[in-house]
Amino acid sequence: MRETNFIIENNARHLWHPMAHPAEMQAHPPRIVNSGEGVEIVDIQGKKVLDAVGGLWNVNLGYSCEPVKKAIRDQLDELPYYSTFRGTTNSPLIELSYELAEWFKPDGLSRSFFTSGGSDSVETCLRLARQYHKVNGQPERTKFVALKKGYHGTHFGGASVNGNQNFRRNYEPLLPGVIHLPAPFTYRNPFNTTDGAEIAAAIGRLFEDEIAFQGADTIAALIVEPVLGAGGVIVPHETFLPLMREICDRHGILLIADEVITAFGRTGAWTGSRLWGVKPDMMSTAKAITNGYFPFGAVMISDKVAEAFESNKNSVGNIGHGYTYSGHPVGAAAALATLKETRKLDVAANAAARGEELLAGLKALQNKHELIGDVRGKGLMCAIELVSDRAKKSGAAKDVVQKVHDATYEAGVMVRTSGANVIMSPPLIVTAGDVQTILTALDAGLAAARA
Ligand SMILES: Cc1ncc(COP(=O)(O)O)c(C=O)c1O
């Protein structure tokens, strides 16, 4: 490794960062994170902070998960790569497919298809949804329904069902035949109410109306996050997902649960679908499946969808989709170790308990700081929305949000900002003391922005 000065001088000079303007990155280079231990990270200046971002919603077990590191090291020695395209497979992958079928049994999902990350998993779900209907003799079912404010990664399919214009406008035209419904968002919605159940019912009516307009026999699938993450941690009313499931069932539309964030305990339940008592037809997962240590994802497939493909007798059922790194043996070994540790540590229970403490603490901060317009969360995915005027709900200025971020960091905690939202998704192994550390630092950050 080159010396520190070299690294600092070349920061953002020869690479473009995701989700950032290259000129802005050159003017204000990003923080250089050099190491991680437990729930903390250390930057190049040697400053240690608690990582309330959890990497990017993915380092659920923290940075020192030795069993996962060891599994990766051992697998690199044994077999660092081999393809899983037709004709070959590998042992850890077969074992992983068995473990995942057990893990997702309560969600009614029994088959897996492996990918290199969340966007790949979403793309796989969308493509398999269309193919499912072709296999079933309904080739005109090609359209997708999604939610505004939903986030589904950045492939063209994912961007097309994405509900935030930041990820769409500069890449248009996107896929035709995608319909967006309003998000189940109590703080901002077009229904002039803050009642979650009313909002859920209103979205249900719009969905039905759209189905009647488009023709049910043209719609392949509805894709939703059980708790909307990157869109600002939007927690739907408990009636929302069951209602969407029921409408999908009545019209032969598949339900895709995008659980790239929620699949392994983050909401306090083992999956977001289980949280709401719903069984999806397909589920996209990634991120915490390897604790973020290896780029990997899995699409989980229901018995109904599996049966259609597996009983197909012609080439329509042939899967013309997949990636060089689908079923990577090192990723599979990492995932096996991660699942074992995740279950052993019962992180879903900790996420539920610590999440309640974090949410209560954020609500207390809202009473203290005018800057906080709204507080939202479920388990260890929480957000505060910053406003310049509470009555008008006008979003806080960019420099104010940046100040909160920087001052919180100075006070010892890394948070993530997205628009006017401050998002927190710490590792699921945080202690009650860690939650207090996050709240104390955020309090200091909010106070500094007001000063
Ligand atoms: C719900 C959801 N779907 C898909 C993705 C895309 O995953 P990736 O960034 O691994 O491609 C994300 C990433 O945050 C996500 O939150």
From TrEMBL:
Pfam families documented for this protein: Aminotran_3
Cofactors named for this entry: pyridoxal 5'-phosphate
Residue stretches in coiled coil: none
Molecular-function annotations in GO: pyridoxal phosphate binding; transaminase activity
Gene3D superfamilies: Aspartate Aminotransferase, domain 1 (3.90.1150.10), Type I PLP-dependent aspartate aminotransferase-like (Major domain) (3.40.640.10)
InterPro entries: Aminotrans_3 (IPR005814), Aminotrans_3_PPA_site (IPR049704), PyrdxlP-dep_Trfase (IPR015424), PyrdxlP-dep_Trfase_major (IPR015421), PyrdxlP-dep_Trfase_small (IPR015422)
Keyword list, A-Z: Aminotransferase, Pyridoxal phosphate, Transferase
Entries under PROSITE patterns matching the protein: AA_TRANSFER_CLASS_3
Family: Belongs to the class-III pyridoxal-phosphate-dependent aminotransferase family.
Protein's recorded name: Aminotransferase class III-fold pyridoxal phosphate-dependent enzyme
Organism in which the protein naturally occurs: Rhizobium lusitanum
